[in-house]
Structure formats: structure tokens, C-alpha cells
Amino acid sequence: MDVDLIFKIIGIGILLAVAQTILKSTGKEDLGFWVTTLGIAVALLMVTELLGDLFTQVKSVFKLF
Amino acid sequence: MEIMPVVGLAIVAAVMGIVLKQSKPEVAVLLSITVGAVIFLAVLGKIGSVIDILKQLAGRAQISDIYLATILKIVAIAYIADFGAQICRDAGESAVASKIEFAAKILVLVLAVPIVVAVLEALLKLVP
């Protein structure tokens, strides 16, 4: 039950939302877009790593190979 | 009593998913994928022990290992396809979800055909 990844992703989401609103208020719209894209890329990397673990464990449990 | 942390975690993630959905819907989808994967990883160990017991019973009943292995493969394909299809449906891509289910049906059919052939051959032997 490694719950830390879930809270990491929630943290990234909130961080991106706050960053975008701050950047929007200071007038730098496009920078906000890049920050959001980068943040989502980081979160996606973490999720795909977790899915990789899930699929390898399923393969070993169900003796699929 | 393993169910309490699972339900607690799921409720926290559901509420946070709504919070994230307003400002960052894509991160909300990532959150739902993560929760699904974490909960299943938590339960996977127990499924493994159940499968080992099934293997011992099949061995004692002299059932050949091929049938149990095929059944396990079909269950695994069904589960992974359902996992992916539900996530795609959550993200709003129901067309992609139905494609995943279509592919899963074909794969299960491919796995089931040898067993059906074996059953038919056994039946033909009985008919004089």
C-alpha cells in the first residue's frame, strides 16, 4: 500500500494550478502553459513507472510468460 | 481486515480528484490511474496465494496444467483489459475503451480455441 505516489500526484496537481494562476496574474500566460505541460510530463512518468510495476507483478502472479 | 485502508484511500482520492478536476482535469485522470494501480498491487499478493492453492488442487486431481494455465491467462487478460477500459472511459474516451474490450475478446477467443478443440475431440472419441 505505497500511498506516497498518490499524494505526490495530488501535490503536483495543486502546485500546477497555483503556479498557473500566479503566472496568469503576472501576465506571463505562455510560461504558465509550459510549466503545466512539464508538470504533467513528470506526473505521467511516475504513473507509467507504477503501471510498469503493476504489469510485471501481474505477469509473475498469473504466470503469463 | 485489509478493506479499511483501501476504502479510506479511495475516498480521499475521489475527493481530491474532484478538487483537481476543476483546474487540472488531466492530473485527475492520472490520479485515478494511480489509485487503481495501488489498490490492485495491494491485493495482488493474496491472489497469488489463492492461485497457488488452485495449482495444488489441480495437481492432486490430475488435471493437466495446460487448462489451469489457460484459465489464469484468460483471467489476467480480462482484468488488465477491464482496468484499461475503465480508465479510458473515465477520461471520456469511450471509443478507445470499446476497442480495448474488442481486442481483449479476440485474445481470449484465441486462448480458448485449443481447449474447445480438445473437448470436441474427446466427445468424438466417445461416439462409436
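qc> Residues 1-61 of chain B form one domain.
qc> done
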